[in-house]
Structures are given as structure tokens and as C-alpha cells.
Amino acid sequence: MKTEQHNSLKMLQWMMAASLALPVALFSFAAANSWISTKDIADREIERSLDVAHEHALKVFETIDRSLSELNEIVRDRTDDELRMKSDAMSARLKQLTDALPQLKSAWVFDDKGRALVNSLNLALPHIDFSDRDYYKAHMAGDVGTFIGANLMPRPPYQGAPFFGVSRRRTSEDGGFAGVVQASVFPEYFEKFYARIGHVPGSFFALGLIDGSILARYPTLAEAARLDPKGPVGRALSINPDGNLVVIRAPGDNIERRIGYRRLANYPIYVAAGLETSAIRDRWLKAISYHLIFGIPATVLVFGLLLFALRRTRRMNFEAMKRREAEEALKHGQRLETLGQLTGGVAHDFNNLLTVIRSSVDLLQRPDLAPERRARYIAAISDTVNRAAKLTAQLLAFARRQTLKPEVFDVGQCVSGVSDIIGTLTGASIEIVTHLSDKPVYVDADLGQFETALINIAVNARDAMKGEGRLVISVTASARLPSATMPRKDGYVAVAIADSGSGIPADQFERIFEPFFTTKEVGQGTGLGLSQVFGFAKQSGGEVAVESEVGKGSVFTLYLPRVVDGVSPALAATEAPVVDGNGLSVLIVEDNRDVGTFTTDALRELGYATELRHSADEALDELAHHAGRYDVVFSDVVMPGRSGIELAQDIRKLYPDLPVVLTSGYSHVLAQNGTFGFELLQKPYSIEQLSRVLAKAGNWRKAQRETV
């Protein structure tokens, strides 16, 4: 029971752990899948945004490139002086060009010294030198085609927003450097476009040169930023110059972003689009929060229910433990009460027996006692001793402490033989009916105890029928005991005794096997008959079952282990006649001096040569010096120090041909393990019984010697 309760608590604890671990595991799995899905979705969004930004930048720069080509055609074959002379017309022409392109701030034509010849602003300031600009230096060094420079600030007196130049080289008739045509482009044009398409939180766009200069970005920065060519982005560009997806910390704001970049075909320009990693995480957290909204309450509910069940189970187990303790205390009290009843019953019955013996002894001491009365008193003492021995045997049978002598016998044959005795006990007014098996059914049990059990049940049935009725005894085979769920291999033999008596009242049903419990009048029974049946059945490995209905009778069924293919010996062996000792030598080992002296004297009267020793050690010393003198050893079992069984086992080893006869009134070793193959004489024994047993063993010893 305690193990089951412990297992139930362990199971609830494991279920509580599982109610947390399983949702956590499922949530972790779902979160991991959600994170992968969120990243994939973000990457696809970045790719789409990069496609839009790339397409936009390509169209813008192609438009500017065509405008520069047109502008170069306008100024081709015109000298610097001609351009200065027609500056108003040329400025109007350039202004018309820039007005058509909102991304352009202005358009310029420079001579070979870096001085402005004409611009779309209609302002010509020949004294300002622009030769230090990056676009001028690039074209002066050689024909680089379309050049895109870094962001610049307007030079006074010009004012306005930052710009970057897109320019081409002017070529003279001889192919030399004649100056530069340049268009100033607004970075804020791109930034405004990026702001319009970057409506997703955490969006990022950038337009930059291959040298790391950033021309435009969104979100904008207060100060210009530049990528480090040796940094993460620079290394990524060197590995995948055409485009890729990377996670970087953008210069300027140091915010971690996942970006995709792509180079503009035929231009030294990169377009980038991306999302902040924190925004991607926010999307993921928002997605998994829906799982938490439903998962956490469900998990808490299941865990709470299991916790409630655990606490309730613990409380119930505690209450069950308290109840068991109370039941144990009650059982202990009941055992003490039963022990008191048992002690009182034993004392009452033995005092009655001792009274008979004492009275008979007192009368035998009278000198003028008539011979017939003397014989009657001696018979009374003998009968009383037999009754006392029977009472002791019944007590030991109930306690399952009697020494059984199991043997294989046919139950049907035994019942057939005992039925005559039962008929004598029950009287002619009770009909005895037997239903026996057609084939022999064997059991391995104590034959004498079995017969006693049948007689006890029959006597109890006779009293229940008040001396008139019908008693049916049947023998059948059974696969299992009534209280067992698994069948026995060889099964059991069931001996059922059914009577037509008054039945057992419900308030007495649970007490019928208690020692000294009886409903009979004082002096008509000890209350130990059914106790003997119960003890014999249990000690034999069987069971006794009772069915009863008030007014219709009772059925007592005795179950004993069945033996397949047994051999049935004769039920009754003819006792050997009382024999004299004829000089047989007996070593008596008895720690009780009175019993030892009485046994020694009695055997000497019968012609035995005897020697008394009071312990096993003394007996072994005697045998060590005079083992050949003795024909048999007669030893008590229960003795201080070495027991009689240990003594017998030592003698068997040291003197294999020396027989040993044991005697005992009770020994728990014998009750549990049997006689170990030695002859056993139960106390109290008569001198005739002792003489027969010793003569049988001693004569065998003598026969062995004569053979040798």
C-alpha cells in the first residue's frame, strides 16, 4: 500500500514536471520554427525593397546620364568664349533641362581651368575656381566616362542642400581636355523616395559609392557617414561584390541591421535595403506571443490541477497513514484482547485438567483405596493427559506451529475411511453422504491432522444440526484458491462438508476461527476445533472457505495442494506391540532433569541400558569416548546452547550408522522446516510409544552390526 501511494505521488510529480517541460519543449520548437520563418519573410521583404530601390536608382542615373550626353552635345564644338557670350541662352537651356529632372539641383559647364562657363542658375562667376572638386580632378586625369563623386556642400556665394556630382569630360578637337559638364544631384531626392517606400518599422535604405562614401540613406543622419573598407561591410563587398545579404552595424548610428546590397550596372554605385534586427525580433516576439496567450493559461491550468491533485493525494495519503496507524493500534488492542482470551481459555481448560489429575493423585495416595477405584483413577489421569495433549495440539494447529508430518495420500480413500468414524460421532439421526472422485486425487499433507480437521468440522456440523439432519462430504479438484487470482500448476483438492443445520449468524461469521470462541454451553466444547482446521489449512499451503445462510446450513471447504501421480500408502499402519528393551543401550539427552530422570527410570524398568546427559555438548563428549556402546540416541529438540536438531546433524556426520530419535512438545524450527529426516516423538508421549520407537531404531542398529 505504501509503495502504491509512493508511486502515485511520484507519478503526479512526473506529470507536473511534464506539464511544464512538454509545453516548454513545444514552445521552444514552435519559437525556433517561427524565428526561421520570420527571418525568411524578412529576407524576402528586404529583397523586394532592394529590387525597388535598385530599379529606381538605375532609372535616375540613366536619366542623368542621358541628360549629360545631351548637354555635352550642346556645348560640343563651342569655344569657351562662345559659351560666355551666349551664357543667357545656354543657362536657359540648362535650366529647362534641370527643371524637367527633379533629382537635379543644377547643371554646369566648366573650362579646362576649373572656372564655370555657364550654369542652370544663370549665375556666372569666373573668379571662382572649382578645380579642386573631385569630378574636375578625375576628368583632368583622363577620360573616365561618367563620374559620380562624393557628397559636396555648395561653395559661397551658393547656398542650399548637399549634393553630389555626376559629370563627363569635355574634349577638344584634338582630343585634349577642354573642361567638364556636370549635374548636381540632390541626395535628399533619394532620401525622400526611401522614406515613402520605407513604411515598415526598422526599414533602412542607402545609396553609396564603391569606395565607401554614402550618398544618401534612410533614416538620415545629421553628419555624413562613410563605410570602412576594412570593416565588416567592406569585407563582405570584397567577397561578394555584386550583392548579398549580411548582418552589420551601420556606420553613424551603430544599429544592427540585416541588409541586402546590389551594385548598379555600369555605375560605381551600390544600393542597399534592410531591416533592423530588433524589428525582426519584434515581429518574432509578436508572433510567438500568440502562442503564449493561449499556451500559458492552459499550462498554468494543467499545472494547477496537477498541483491540486498532488496536494489532495498527499493529504489523502496522510489521512490513510493516520487511519492505518489507528487500525494498527486497534488491531494491537484486539490482539492483546485475543491473547487475554486465549490465556484465560487455556488457563481455564488446563486448570480443569489439572484438577482431575490432582484429585486422582490425592485419592491414589489413600492406603485403603480399593483396587477397582485405583484403576479408575489411573485411567482418569491417563485420559486427562491425552485431553491435555489434544488441547495443546489444537492450539499449535491454530497458531500454525505444530510439527506436521506431510505425506502423499488419496483424499477420497481417506474420506471414505473417516466417514465411518464421523458417522459414529454424529449418530444414527444424521445421514452421511459422500461424493468422491472416480479417480484418486492426492495431496501432500499431514494425514493425522487432515483426519482431525474433518472430524472437527463434522462435530461442529452435528452440533449445528442438533443431532439430526444431513451431512454431505464431496471431494473435487480446483485450479486455484478462492482468494487467489492465479491458478496453481497442479491445482488443489477441495473437500467440502455441507450440513443442513441452523447456519452461522452474520455477527458471528468473522469469529468462528478464533480460539476459544464457542456458542456451546460451558463444558461442551473448547472452541478450538475450527481453529485447528484454520491453522492446519494455512500451514499446509491451502485455505478454508466458509459459506453459510441462516436457517439453511453451512458449507466448509478445505483446500489442500494437489499432487499429480501420487502414490497412496496404507491409511492405517498396525502399531507394533509393546516391547521390552532387551538390553538396548540408549543415550538420553534432556535438559529438564525431572523429565530426564523419569524417562531414564522408566526405560530401565523396561530392560533398556540408559545413560543421561543434560546438553548436546555433554552428549558429544560421551560419544567421542564410547560411541560403540550405544544403539540409539534419544534427544530433546529445545535445549540451551546447541539444539537437539544440531546435535542430530552432528551425529549423522560423525556416526552415520547411529540412529537418532528426537522429541519435542513444540519447536519453531520443526514447525517451519520439518524433522530434517529424523524420527520424531511428540510430547507428551507414553512409555509404550517411547519403547516402540526406540526398539525399532535400536534393532535396526543391532541388525547392521550383525551384518558387518
Q: What's the quick description here?
A:
This protein has 17 helices and 22 strands. It is of the alpha+beta class and 708 residues long. The strands form 4 sheets. Strands 11, 12, 13, 14, 15, 16 and 17 form a 7-stranded mixed beta sheet that branches.
Distance N to C terminus:
64 Å
Helix content range: 40-55%
What's the total helix number?
17
Helix/strand class: alpha+beta
Oligomeric state of the chains present here: single chain
Mean pLDDT metric: 80
Largest sheet: 7 strands, mixed
What gyration radius follows from the Cα positions, in whole Å?
A: 60 Å
The 3D shape can be described as rod-shaped
Strand segment tally: 22
Q: Low-confidence spans: pLDDT under 50, at least 5 residues?
A: 521-527, 568-576
- The proportion of strand residues reads 15-25%
